[in-house]
Design a protein that fits this description.
Elements (H helix, E strand, L loop, with lengths): L12 H4 E2 L3 H14 L17 H16 L4 E2 L5 E9 L5 E8 L11 E8 L31 E4 L1 H7 L1 H6 L5 H21 L5 E6 L6 E9 L10 E7 L3 E8 L1 H9 L12
Parallel strand pairs: 1-5, 6-10
Antiparallel strand pairs: 2-3, 3-4, 4-5, 7-8, 8-9, 9-10
Helix pairs in contact: 3-7
Length: 272
């Protein structure tokens, strides 16, 4: 069962730009969802106030990444700014977030820009830029995106259970001994599956809020309830020089949102 969370903007986007009222920003996000190639941007069973939560999450993370890469473009006159969302229209045109100099009385300190909306690169208002910026690039080391079947998978069971007990309770399990036994079985299952299909591992881009350091992690399906076709949770694994270490788990909804930060997941176990 997915527990909804209040939408709280994080990252640099809301620090650097006034995005308008919550209702106005929601309307622009909904417009983007219709403008872009079709994807599932909502969690199952969401409330109306969380429309396109995954897309909002995606835009925030995308801005963080393009800013770190220096891929934000300022117009020749200095009055406009844009970044590439990484999304395309149904006809294959790139979609950009477009901003102008902020003169709003509601802006906080540091919010230099005012968000006007999303535009295609061919739109007339985009002609003010000498060039249009490229998409975010997470593929610095392609080897990190492929599960290395020669490495052992080591599980920190106590850490996983203690830190994520509520997620196991949502599946109907309250006895920690039973949970560990099911995790051990699920680990054996995924080890055998990943040997035969390394594509089951899906990358996510993780940024530590404390250190601000980012890295690629892999997500593996955990089949807890005996059905080896429908995953119940996603195991997050870190790659070291000699092995993979599993230390935490995610709900499938959050696993999808995190992996979509890089690319649309294309595996059956992570459909929402």
């Amino acid at each position: 069962m997915f527990v909804e969370r209040e939408y709280v903007p994080e990252g640099y986007l809301f620090q650097d730009a006034f995005m308008g009222t919550k209702e106005a920003y929601q309307g622009k996000i909904n417009f983007l969802a219709k403008m872009a190639q079709p994807e599932e941007w909502n969690y199952p069973g969401k409330s109306d106030s969380h429309d396109n939560f995954i897309l909002k999450n995606y835009i925030l993370y995308t801005y963080d990444q393009v800013k770190s890469e220096g891929k934000i473009e300022i117009s020749l006159d200095g009055n406009s700014m844009c970044f590439n969302t990484g999304l395309q229209t149904k006809n294959g045109n790139d979609i950009y977030a477009y901003f102008i100099k902020n003169t709003s009385d509601h802006a906080r300190e540091g919010q230099k820009w005012y968000f006007l909306g999303f535009n295609q690169g061919v739109d007339s208002r985009m002609k003010c830029f000498a060039k249009l910026p490229d998409i975010a690039n997470y593929f610095t080391n392609p080897a990190d995106f492929i599960y290395d079947r020669s490495l052992e998978l080591i599980m920190d069971y106590d850490h996983i259970i203690d830190d994520n007990y509520s997620r196991f309770k949502d599946l109907g399990y309250t006895d920690k001994h039973v949970i560990k036994a099911l995790l051990v079985t699920a680990t054996v299952t995924i080890k055998e599956k990943i040997k035969r299909n390394y594509k089951l591992a899906i990358p996510q881009y993780f940024t530590d809020k404390g250190t601000k350091e980012s890295k690629i992690q892999l997500l593996l399906p955990l089949f807890m309830r005996g059905n080896n076709e429908e995953a119940d949770l996603a195991l997050v694994v870190d790659k070291t020089q000699h092995n993979y270490i599993g230390k935490t788990i995610l709900t499938l909804e959050w696993a999808y949102a995190n992996s979509r930060r890089i690319v649309k997941p294309d595996v059956d176990w992570l459909k929402i």
